[in-house]
Amino acid sequence: MSLLAKSLTLSGRRLVEACVRHHSLTTELIENMDKKATWDRFYAESSSKTSTFKNFEWFFGFDAVRDFIMPLLQTESHPDALLQVLDMGCGTSALGPCIFRHSAHPVRVTCADISPVAVRLMQEHVRAKAIQPHNLCSQLEFVELDCTQLHRHYGCSSVDLIVDKGTTDALLRSKEGRGKAGLVLKQCLKVLRSSGSVLQFSDEDPDARLLWLETEAQEPGVMAADVGVQEVGELRGVSYYCYQVTPRRIV
């Protein structure tokens, strides 16, 4: 088995194990994580099992990655500009609301997911909790959005930061999702400003993910990107990484 195949298999098992602890989906989930219906069922079943809402976090929560995210939300050139932040494939994670709550710089945080069930659950939760921003100019919204079609919500070069915590992993490990994962990355690079970045949080080995990112982010004469990686740390015996993809000007 190749390194790439082994990495995908192991990470896929970890994703399923995380879901099994909260949910009845197993093989169906791992094979269909690129499908809207799968996630509608996942979040509907999860919410039906308890009367009290609880955020579902892939891998880890905001505190584990805040030091990777928050420094990218500081700008001296336009201190009052509203930075556009996308939490891509947000599910019912608290990541987007935490960015909204903790960013001293004004931000517009868009939490987007393909599942309207997840979007509705988060809208209801935020209304009930009356979450307040650190900066009074900051904004928070939840939208139903297929992230292979980011251009329908954003113009070119309009987003400052895209956070992807497990979304690309889910696509890469689903039966028919690999092509969609590449399309999502290309969409991200098109809507990002030249100073912006995509942060992918993943448990996939750098030898496999870096090669994939470097291949998918290049389109001669159209787009190019710089790709880097930092280790987030180890949780329950699994190493996690932050992959940063930044658009590079075509000359």
Account of the protein in words:
There is one protein chain. The chain contains 9 helices and 7 strands, in the order ααααβαβαββααβαββ. By secondary structure, it is α/β, with parallel strands linked by helices. The chain has a single domain (62-248), classed as Vaccinia Virus protein VP39 (Rossmann fold, 3-Layer(aba) Sandwich), CATH 3.40.50.150. A hairpin with a 2-residue loop joins β6 and β7. α1 (3-20) packs across α7 (167-173) and α7 (167-173) packs antiparallel against α8. The radius of gyration is 17 Å and the shape is globular. The model is unreliable at 1-13 and 18-24 (pLDDT under 50).
Describe this protein with a few key phrases.
251 residues; alpha/beta; Rossmann fold; seven-stranded mixed sheet
Distance between the ends: 39 Å
CATH class: Alpha Beta
The CATH superfamily appears as Vaccinia Virus protein VP39
Q: What is the CATH third-level topology name?
A: Rossmann fold
Gyration radius, to the nearest Å? Answer: 17 Å
What percent strand?
Answer: 15-25%
Question: Main sheet: which strands, in order across?
Answer: 3-2-1-4-5-7-6
Helix content: 25-40%
| CATH architecture identity | 3-Layer(aba) Sandwich
Biggest pleated sheet: 7 strands, mixed
* Overall form: globular
**Low-confidence region ranges:** 1-13, 18-24
State the order of secondary-structure elements, H for helix, E for strand: HHHHEHEHEEHHEHEE
- As for the number of domains, it is 1
What's the mean pLDDT score? 87
What structural class do the secondary elements suggest? alpha/beta
Family: Belongs to the methyltransferase superfamily.
InterPro entries: Lys/N-term_MeTrsfase_sf, Methyltranfer_dom, SAM-dependent_MTases_sf
Keywords: Methyltransferase, Mitochondrion, S-adenosyl-L-methionine, Transferase, Transit peptide
Pfam family, one: Methyltransf_31
